[in-house]
Design the sequence.
């Protein structure tokens, strides 16, 4: 819920930016139409809309061969935008609580709101630094803010080419932000507090338990430690498998894709998302397995790992909770339906150029990725209308509660279906 909440607010800022652009265009057209190009009113307009205005001013001055004026305006516009972005981040961090309430937070979700806002603003500040850019230049504030928000909310949306424009440092920062968003900032903070022996307040204990839906699980500290350590272990195994099955892949790239897969983020270092892995079905199955595990949710995985399947005594063996059974059964049904749809609609279509093993790898991955991740192996426009419709439905449903995926959740759809069935009977 927090992911959708902050993405919505980020989109509000983008709409404000669009309004800013429209206002500038009309102001600029008005001034040029009245031949006011040389009066100081336009200088004020250019300064007020530094990004838009300075660009137009620079192009006009270069056209007039006034290179000195163009250079001065480039510096003014750039550093004005930079200073404004830094100021917004710093002021946001200083007045975090009022900002959270301004954005619509309630007392119940205030700890989550402040945690998310802090990480997003700090992430934006770091991504703005020249060291985060391949060209060693300052990244515009709005681009850094949107990228940071998308990473923490594990949406995978990006206004920059992550593989081309970000340096290794910037890509590493993106991994950290995605990991924080996937695990949850409250979980990571609690993990470090537990490591150093600090205690949480009773309210924060309930907040962590509610984040996992773990009211019936004894030992929430063990659950938090298990969530962080098991996530690290699964991602490590995924990274090693990717390095083994795809020749020529660096450890950094394998780590990047392992984290993005398990956290269901969808960021890619390559153009065309995962199109470069079309000929490596084992790599696709590895990433498909990672994103599926991430979509189950930590509570389901915890439940699965605590069952002692080898014991004959049912009491000693343990049992799956009702929540886990709903998630697993719902996920299985959705994956099977998606597989049938993809292979039926695309076997002689988008999958036709591939060998049998490649068809299976691409088809299976294309069936599991829409619900949670956003990676794609085949360009969306090459898929049939039926497959695109099923993809949209799966994206709407999403993953399980307490997972790294989005959507309205599998359990919600299960409750709706069972309610309709009950009413019909």
Sequence:
């Amino acid at each position: 819920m927090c992911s959708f909440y902050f993405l919505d607010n980020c989109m509000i800022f983008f709409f404000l930016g669009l309004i800013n652009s429209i206002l500038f265009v009309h102001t600029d057209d008005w001034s040029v139409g009245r031949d006011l190009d040389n009066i100081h009113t336009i200088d004020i307009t250019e300064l007020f809309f530094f990004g838009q205005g300075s660009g137009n001013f620079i192009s006009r001055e270069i056209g007039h061969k006034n290179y000195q004026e163009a250079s001065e305006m480039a510096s003014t516009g750039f550093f004005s935008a930079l200073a404004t972005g830094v100021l917004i981040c710093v002021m946001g961090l200083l007045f975090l609580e009022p900002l959270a309430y301004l954005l619509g937070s309630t007392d119940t979700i205030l700890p989550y709101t402040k945690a998310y806002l802090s990480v997003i603003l700090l992430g934006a500040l770091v991504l703005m630094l020249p060291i985060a850019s391949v060209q060693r230049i300052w990244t515009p504030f709005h681009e850094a803010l949107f990228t940071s928000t998308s990473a923490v909310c594990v949406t995978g949306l990006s206004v920059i080419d992550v593989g081309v424009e970000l340096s290794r440092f910037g890509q590493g920062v993106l991994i950290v932000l995605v990991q924080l968003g996937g695990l949850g900032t409250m979980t990571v903070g609690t993990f470090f507090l537990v490591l150093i022996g600090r205690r949480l307040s009773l309210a924060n204990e309930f907040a962590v338990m509610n984040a996992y839906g773990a009211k019936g699980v004894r030992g929430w500290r063990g659950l938090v430690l298990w969530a962080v350590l098991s996530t690290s272990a699964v991602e490590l195994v995924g990274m090693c498998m990717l390095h083994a099955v795809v020749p020529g892949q660096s450890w950094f790239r394998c780590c990047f894709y392992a984290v993005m897969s398990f956290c269901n983020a969808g960021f890619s270092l390559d153009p065309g998302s995962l199109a470069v892995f079309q000929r490596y079905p084992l790599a696709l199955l590895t990433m498909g397995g990672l994103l599926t595990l991430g979509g189950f949710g930590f509570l389901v995985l915890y439940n699965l790992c605590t069952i002692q399947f080898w014991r004959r005594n049912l009491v000693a063996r343990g049992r799956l909770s009702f929540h886990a059974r709903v998630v697993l059964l719902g996920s299985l049904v959705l994956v099977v339906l998606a597989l049938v749809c993809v292979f039926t609609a695309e076997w002689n279509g988008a999958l036709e150029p591939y060998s049998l093993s490649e068809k299976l790898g691409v088809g299976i991955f294309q069936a599991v990725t829409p619900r949670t991740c956003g990676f794609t192996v085949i360009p969306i426009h090459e898929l049939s209308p039926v497959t695109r419709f099923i993809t949209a439905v799966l994206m709407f449903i999403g993953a399980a509660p307490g997972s790294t995926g989005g959507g309205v959740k599998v359990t919600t759809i299960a409750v709706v279906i069972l309610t309709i069935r009950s009413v019909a009977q």
Notes: The radius of gyration is 25 Å. The chain has 20 helices and no strands. Confidence is low (pLDDT under 50) at residues 1-20, 22-49. The longest helix spans residues 2-33.
